[in-house]
From TrEMBL:
UniProt xrefs under PANTHER family: [RIBOSOMAL PROTEIN US5]-ALANINE N-ACETYLTRANSFERASE, GNAT FAMILY, PUTATIVE (AFU_ORTHOLOGUE AFUA_3G00765)-RELATED-RELATED
Keywords: Acyltransferase, Transferase
Keyword Transferase: yes
Domain N-acetyltransferase: 15-176, 196-361
Family classification: Belongs to the acetyltransferase family. RimJ subfamily.
Name of this chain's protein: RimJ/RimL family protein N-acetyltransferase
Keyword Phosphoprotein appears in the UniProt entry: no
């Protein structure tokens, strides 16, 4: 192909992909000063003028000429906003890469650009497009999810940036796939009742998480928790909440005091991708010791039940049935279930492991939307 004459302009009316020009060097140089851009891509750091110049006047044009990569400038709101490229590979499988100026982010620009390039790649006969990002690049992962990439896996140390190995997420889409989200990426709306507020976890909640999960009673009834439960464990727990909701597996709220924003407990709905029944969910919780005995958890679970039974199109989890389990002797937990209308439907014998190697009976509760 000739550059720039043969570079196809692609547009959906809001975002336009076009050949780069020398006028893009300055804004491209500016984008690459962004620490977020430097963190998640392989661009040189420090990023100098000559890097931008070489990339736009040598690397991109030669990619079009020899067919090794197709890079477009993203134009949005009448100006250069970033770059997206396709790198063809063997067997009709190629990769996509992208970066956007901070001012243009969170407007759906990259999702539009990705969809335009996917259409082009498949028109050119590609079978599959692969997306890769370093683990933790949630903005990029969300773009990939919104554009229909699927079957995401984590490949340890698969990536490398400036000599440092990084864990990578990898997902792909084929020409026969619908370029739309697969599965849910749940939101964590604020839920409120008198005396309790439920919100998304923040890293600043870690200290109170560690306190709550080190507590003797929490440790006794939740035998799967790390022991001792360190601040590191609390930080990992909080970080892992994003994966749980992005993968559609569940939603976790921190229960806080509405006046002080201090953590009172945790409540989750999980198993939302249950292999046989994707209309069910399981509720789990723990309370900080200083928040116990005043109905905090009962209120919080009530709010979560309402959200879980709300249809997906109204912002809820669209559940038909909720399950809840409590080990023999955990009367406080069974009380929370009962005051929220759950029915005890049976006992699983010797199903709850304890820390000292015993197995207690598990009381099984459920609640139907129609109850
Ligand atoms: C990744 C990037 C291209 C996204 O571009 P964008 O135009 O903002 O993407 P979109 O607006 O289409 O979608 C981004 C979504 O991710 C969300 N998001 C952004 N950062 C996030 C974060 N840290 N955690 C969770 N969600 C995040 C946005 O809110 C938006 O969500 P929405 O769809 O609900 O509005 C841009 O952030 C970027 O250039 N980052 C630096 C370079 C980079 O990471 N490139 C990809 C390397 S694999």
């Amino acid at each position: 192909m000739r550059f720039p004459e043969d570079v196809p302009a692609l547009t959906d009316g809001t975002v336009t992909l076009r050949a780069h020009t020398s006028a893009d060097i300055k804004p491209a140089f500016d984008v690459c000063q962004d620490p977020v851009m430097q963190q998640w891509t392989t661009i040189p750091v420090p990023y100098e003028w000559q890097h931008a110049e070489q990339y736009l006047t040598e690397f991109i044009p030669s990619g079009w000429r020899d067919g090794s990569s197709w890079g477009w400038a993203i134009e949005y709101d009448g100006r250069y906003a970033g770059t997206i490229d396709l790198r063809p590979g063997a067997g009709g499988v190629g990769e996509i890469g992208f970066g956007l100026a901070p001012w243009a982010r969170s407007n759906g620009v990259m999702t539009r650009a990705v969809k335009l390039t996917l259409g082009y790649a498949f028109d050119q006969g590609w079978e599959r497009v692969i997306w890769r990002a370093y683990v933790g690049n949630w903005g990029s992962r969300r773009v990939a999810w919104k554009s229909g990439f699927r079957n995401l896996v984590m490949a340890p140390a698969h990536g490398v940036a400036r000599g440092v190995r990084k864990d990578e997420w990898i997902a792909s889409i084929t020409r026969d796939d619908d370029p739309e989200p697969q599965g849910h990426w749940w939101s964590v709306p604020v839920l409120e009742a008198d005396g309790v507020r439920l919100r998304e976890f923040r890293s600043t909640d870690a200290k109170r998480v560690a306190e709550a999960c080190s507590d003797e009673r929490t440790q006794m009834w939740l035998a799967g928790l790390p022991s001792p439960y360190t601040l590191d464990a609390a930080e990992s727990f909080i970080e892992s909440r994003q994966e749980i909701r992005a993968s559609g597996e569940g939603v976790t709220w921190v229960i806080v005091d509405p006046d002080t924003d201090e953590l009172l407990g945790n409540v989750s709905v999980f198993d939302l991708r249950n292999r046989i029944d994707q209309t069910m969910g399981e509720i789990g919780y723990w309370a900080h010791p200083d928040a116990r005995g005043r109905g905090v958890m009962s209120k919080a679970v009530g709010l979560v039940i309402r959200h879980a039974f709300t249809p997906v199109e109204d912002g809820g989890l669209g559940r038909r049935r909720l399950a809840l389990f409590a080990a023999e002797g955990n009367t406080a937990s069974m009380h929370v279930a009962e005051v929220n209308g759950f029915t005890e439907v049976g006992v699983e014998r010797s199903a709850s492991p304890t820390r000292d190697g015993r197995f207690l009976d598990t009381h099984c509760f459920d609640l139907l939307r129609t109850d």
